[in-house]
From TrEMBL:
Residues 11-225 are annotated as: Phosphopantothenate--cysteine ligase. Keywords: Decarboxylase, Flavoprotein, FMN, Ligase, Lyase, Magnesium, Metal-binding, Multifunctional enzyme. This is Coenzyme A biosynthesis bifunctional protein CoaBC. It catalyses: N-[(R)-4-phosphopantothenoyl]-L-cysteine + H(+) = (R)-4'-phosphopantetheine + CO2; (R)-4'-phosphopantothenate + L-cysteine + CTP = N-[(R)-4-phosphopantothenoyl]-L-cysteine + CMP + diphosphate + H(+). It comes from the Bacteria. Binds 1 FMN per subunit. Residues 6-221 form the DNA/pantothenate metabolism flavoprotein C-terminal domain. Its cofactor is Mg(2+); FMN. One of its GO terms (molecular function) is phosphopantothenoylcysteine decarboxylase activity. Its EC number is 4.1.1.36, 6.3.2.5. CTP binds at D100, K110, P127, D128, I129, L130, F147, K165, K169. The keyword Metal-binding applies. Pathway: Cofactor biosynthesis; coenzyme A biosynthesis; CoA from (R)-pantothenate: step 2/5; Cofactor biosynthesis; coenzyme A biosynthesis; CoA from (R)-pantothenate: step 3/5.
Length: 225
């Protein structure tokens, strides 16, 4: 049986990918399935937490039992949803794949193929939700967890990028996944490292996303205020 060590806690988990509209039928998106965030939400509920799952676009996963789901399809919408849910949260886990950029303009009508060269796509930066939670916490003392999907030729490259990202984002914990080889996106399994701001570094062996979720909550619990 799972421990009930999140009893009386409220946790917010973001999951899935954002879509940034180019026109009514096209968007900039990513391959996030939402499965890791779903697993985090499900496991937290099983461990006794009240869970708010801020859901971007995902595979067809159905709603996890006993979890409040808030839909947020774009980075801007997700920022508002996460910050709103986090005002009374003990922990926030940003498992969502948030687009770093969005189109400057969204065409009201479908963009047509013309004879001329296509206009260059102009992009602008989205808010960094995770960095914003650290810089301006909706509630003081909450534990903030980020994710990093990194590519690299060797584990060392991936870890190196992960440590730099942890320092840059300033969150308490960072889950680093190597992308590719049946890991991270569009898969049911995952592996990686759990890096802590206080210097901790644990390997997360290859396993189900539920197992990884348990390991992540194991690291969050002792850090809760
Ligand atoms: O910088 P990068 O996108 O790799 O960072 C990934 C982490 O930052 C994830 O936890 C993701 O949810 C979060 N993120 C965010 N807002 C963005 C981009 C990423 O919160 N605009």
């Amino acid at each position: 049986a799972l421990p009930r060590d999140l009893e009386g806690r409220h946790v917010v988990v973001s999951a899935g990918g954002t879509r940034e509209d180019l026109d009514p039928v096209r968007f900039l998106g990513n391959r996030s399935s939402g499965r890791q965030g779903w697993a985090l939400a499900r496991v937290a509920a099983q461990r006794g937490a009240r869970v708010t799952l801020v859901a971007g676009h995902t595979a067809d996963l159905g709603a996890p039992a006993g979890v409040d789901v808030v839909a947020a399809g774009t980075a801007v919408a997700m920022e508002a949803a996460v910050r709103g849910a986090a005002v009374d949260a003990d922990a926030v886990v940003m498992a969502a794949a948030v687009a770093d950029f969005r189109p400057v303009d969204t065409a009201a009508d479908k963009i047509k193929r013309g004879d001329a060269e296509p206009a260059p796509l102009r992009l602008t930066q989205n808010p960094d939700i995770l960095a914003g939670l650290v810089a301006d916490p909706p509630r003081s003392g909450q534990v903030v967890v980020g994710f990093a999907a990194e590519t690299g030729d060797a584990d060392g490259d991936v870890l190196h990028h992960g440590r730099a990202k942890l320092a840059r984002k300033g969150c308490d914990l960072l889950v680093v996944n190597a992308v590719g080889d049946g890991k991270a996106f569009e898969t049911t399994d995952n592996a990686g490292w759990l890096l802590a701001r206080d210097g901790g570094e644990d390997e997360l062996p290859f396993g189900s996303k539920a197992l990884l979720a348990s390991r992540i909550w194991d690291a969050v619990v002792p850090r809760l205020r």
